[in-house]
Amino acid sequence: MGQALSWHGLKSDEWDQIGPDNRAYVAKLCRKHGEMGRPLAVDYMREARQDHVRANQRLRELSESLELGKTGLTATVHDGELKKWCERHSDEIEKACEQWTKRAGVREAIRYAIKRVEECGLVFPIDDPTKPVNNDTKDEWRQAMARVFDPKWWRLQVRKIQARKIEAVAREIRLVHKESGIYSSNMTVNRRKAQKARNREALTNMEAVNGDGEAVNLLELAKSSVANPVNRRAELMVRIKGFEQCAETAGHVGVFITLTAPSKYHRMTYIKSWGRVVPNKKYDGYSPRDAQNYFCRVWSQIRAQLWREDIRPYGFRVAEPHHDGTPHWHLLLFVDPEQADRLREVMHDYGTREDGKEWGAQRRRVTVVNIDPDKGSAAGYIAKYISKNIDGHAIDEDLYGKDAKDSAERIDAWAAAWGIRQFQQIGGASVTVWRELRRLKVEEITGNGDAENAFEVLEAIEAADSADWAAYTMIQGGMTVRRDDQLIRSHYTDNGLGAYYQPVKRLIGVMARGFGEIKTRLTEWVIQKAGTAEKQAKRLEDMTLENPYPRGSSLKDLQALGAPMSLEELKAMSEAVLSGVAATWTRGNNCTGAKPPGGYWPETPPPGGGSKAANGGQWGYA
Fold it and tell me: Which of 133, 151, 352, 388 could pair with 356 in a Cys bridge, judged by C-beta atoms 3.0 to 4.6 Å apart?
């Protein structure tokens, strides 16, 4: 039997640990979940030693938690199969909604779509699904339904649920801790690697070309941006060092604060005297995302209290996981020395309000270290936390004795799976403006402001260009300046409607107070397949009056020479962006309009469900 059922790796002697009456049941449930099958079976054997009835119930519950609603899929489904399912499912819902619209009207079609989305365990893409369907809300409903009809939207939502279901079960069956898969499970780490490989391949196969014919491979562009871990780490350290210089000039002091979540958020605990990791008896089923939400809620309360007392700290926050994947926060804050004691009191007060009487809460929940400049800089103090959570640069081992580079990879998988923002700036000037100013050349600047404002703008540009965050911050208005009061702000323009009919804004530059608009994005880039520009140039070189159609070309190819992007290339770009690439490299909206809910356009009446409104000839809902 062991050999026949070796699909999940159990050996004959392991099957002997499972009662004969339960073997078929265990095999049936574990077989559904692929590589998760063996860990589930091992967990079953561990539980069955105490109570085989409870073990059966637990296995069933874990198996059900890995199912993706009523889709017939499980969280461990292969990505290729998932993509095919999303295409079939979205097309099926769109066609069904067209029929519902014809038979019973738009409202019934929407009810049907909501039901199908929720059956799959997803959240319908509108803030309130009970919202009435009328002229006032029709744009919101149209945007929501356009998403439901798009297989890309389904893939994004299902992949997110996949990752969290896998990781939640992995934590439950003890696969995430310092003696197993530290920070995140091996399955999640491998899935993250595969996703990055797909993204790299997609970027390698595309290039950006501008009006001058200059072509740049997208992977090379990505390497030069903050998506590159090296650049990301360098920029963070520049900004942290800049804050420290501002603090020195202002006579402020630095404090390093660590916030830890209550015990009920931690799945595993390390008992030092035993030298072992054991399940935490106080654990109450919370996910790392729940713990992150707890910290966000506590920080919002702390920030509100500090602002009521006119205390304005500034600095950085780092969210990183404990060995079992439960996050904790590190905050490097600078503050007026006369307010430092009150800052610590407020942090401790709000950080221990929830379950503050449990053992160790008062001592461990909020820890504070005062930064002593004589012993080292604040930037140096936090540098290891930045490096550990990005790429492990200049660190041999993490806190648990694991290889730092491997740990950074696992932390990246953890943050991606749970949707946790690792780094956040507190206070200070806009980093978006900083990045835009670094794109500028002085000779490209035009404005109609007075000389004084022009001088400040030039100083800000020089500070950004020389990576002087301290000078840039002070020119913008200081460490605690409000966004509306900053000298230079990012400037957007309307860019029509996106793929889901939502208004799209495009960043085109910055707006300086008293000086005017400064455009930083002067070149239009278009996405196309890698090598297209080179092939086009070669064909144009080969074309002569005697031979206008060079060998190996076709009329169709030649007609496409002037086209910036074909439909297939556009789809390839969208695929890459939606599977994890941060942003497109085009400066325009290249999205082809999707079919509206029910299959009708705004200029035509919805079948069986609409009447023409008197004002402006817009179609409303009966």
Answer: 352
28-80: pLDDT as tens digits: 999 999 899 999 999 999 999 999 999 999 999 999 999 999 999 999 999 99
- Which two three-digit tokens encode residue 237? 């350290």
Question: What's the Cα-to-Cα distance from 617 to each of 39, 512, 613, rounded to whole Å?
Answer: 61, 41, 6
Residue bearing the bigger pLDDT, 485 or 532: 485
Burial of 335 per CB tally in 10 Å (0-12, 13-18, 19+): buried
Is 44 a catalytic site residue? no
Nearest-CA neighbor of 319 among 366, 277, 378, 260?
260
Give the distance from CA 214 to its chain's centroid. Answer: 31
Would you state the pLDDT for residue 616? 31
Eight-state DSSP code of residue 403: B
For residue 331, pLDDT over 90 is answered with yes
Q: Give me the DSSP letters along 42-93.
A: HHHHHHHTT-HHHHHHHHHHHHHHTB-TTSS-BTT--HHHHHHHHHHHHHHH
Catalytic residue among 44, 265, 283, 385: 385
Distance of CA 129 to the CA centre of its chain: 24
- Does residue 567 register a pLDDT over 60? no
Q: Which amino acid is at 498?
A: G
Q: Is 381 a catalytic residue?
A: yes
Could you read off the pLDDT of 356-381 as tens digits, one per residue? 999 999 999 999 999 998 888 999 88
What pLDDT does 536 receive?
A: 67
The Cα 561–Cα 575 span in angstroms is 23
Range list of β-strands (E), 488-548: 488-497, 503-512, 516-519, 525-529
Contact 162, 415 (CB under 8 A): no
